[in-house]
Amino acid sequence: MDSRDEVRDREICMAAWDGPDNPSGAVAPPVYQTSLFAKPTFGRFVAEQAAEHENPVYSRGTNPTVAFLEERLALLERGEAAKCFASGMGAIAAVLAGTLKSGDHVLFVNTVYGPTLELAEHLRRFGVEHTALPDPPADIGPWIRDDTALIYLESPGTMLMRVLDVPALAAQARRRGIRTVIDNTWATPLHQKPLTFGVDLAVHSCTKYIGGHSDVVGGVLVGSREAVREVFYQGHQLFGAAMSAMEAALVLRGLRTLPVRMAEHRRNAGAVVEALAAHPRVAAVHHPAVAHGPDEALVRRQFRGYSGLLSFELEDGSFDRVARFMDALSLFRIGVSWGGYESLATSPQRPGNGDELRARGLPPGLVRLSVGLEGAAPQIADLERALAEV
Ligand SMILES: *Cc1c(COP(=O)(O)O)cnc(C)c1O
């Protein structure tokens, strides 16, 4: 990676609150804990309300603490504008439900986040159809329809960590005038900048690495000024999944250490991947660092670094074995979500759900790990102890 880019990203993450409204020199942003902003004249009120996407009028729309975070995240993604939401799903729902109309079709490429597909299923009742390609084909051309209005990517996917050729997919969509969205949560805006590959909109769950401390739920959407404005009026204002000022302050606190945390997640995950790949009870390890063949070239071209979310397959993929492994862990805790300081383990395996796993393109015995910041040695020791008991 270009080191100037790295320096710039660090500056963006660590920028202090500045400007004329900071006479005290506070380095952390003030939390604008207010629902509304009163204006000195009715004329000014009318003017600001006419452009609520850029003026603080009411905190469901624009709030200065949240706006500061939005500005940071837009810069990191190399987008023109960003809008924060109460959750990642808030951002995803605002894009899908806010911009699509009856008769539109959406193409989902890769193993997309489960609730995103559940929302797509829900939108069928409003006449929005979709096709999901959990096992991405070399050419998605045959699945693009005349009514395809949106191509939704996730790269890597967050179960099998498969990587897409994002620039090629973005170019293919653009030729046909179709908008593209990518869920960029795995890589964070530090390690992958999909807008520079021609993708129109990037979404993140800020709950994961961007927040990083498992104490906040949030989401963000980044793209061109025009596209973000469209989602603001049609998806954010109307559905109301607004991020609060307090949540924005917590996400901003996380953002300041994002570069140093990601370096450590990457170091630990690299060592964990190596240890698992060499273990006789592990059938396969999934992480972009161990991609091979054509995927390896994609990884090198598209990523500036790795995160700590990976998965692996137990040799014996029965529910009992998975449960025995999980219960034998102690440093890795059992739970949903990922990207926090703490190491976590989970699995899509349930008693008797083999058919469902096959339909989702997931192998039996799949365990997903979020490698935290405790250090590679105790993390590997915990995994090896648990594998010995399987
Ligand atoms: C968690 C997650 C989301 C949803 O974000 P929330 O903040 O939980 O609503 C979306 N995409 C991916 C890949 C996720 O892991």
TrEMBL record:
Please list the cofactors this protein needs: pyridoxal 5'-phosphate
Would the keyword DNA damage be found if you checked this record's keyword annotation?
no
Keyword annotations for this protein, in alphabetical order, are:
Aminotransferase, Pyridoxal phosphate, Transferase
Pfam families named among the record's database cross-references: Cys_Met_Meta_PP
Matches recorded under InterPro entries = Cys/Met-Metab_PyrdxlP-dep_enz, Cys_met_metab_PP, PyrdxlP-dep_Trfase, PyrdxlP-dep_Trfase_major, PyrdxlP-dep_Trfase_small
Q: Name one GO molecular function term.
A: transaminase activity
The record, for CDD domains, names:
CGS_like (cd00614)
Q: Which family does it belong to?
A: Belongs to the trans-sulfuration enzymes family.
| Descriptive protein name | Aminotransferase class I/II-fold pyridoxal phosphate-dependent enzyme
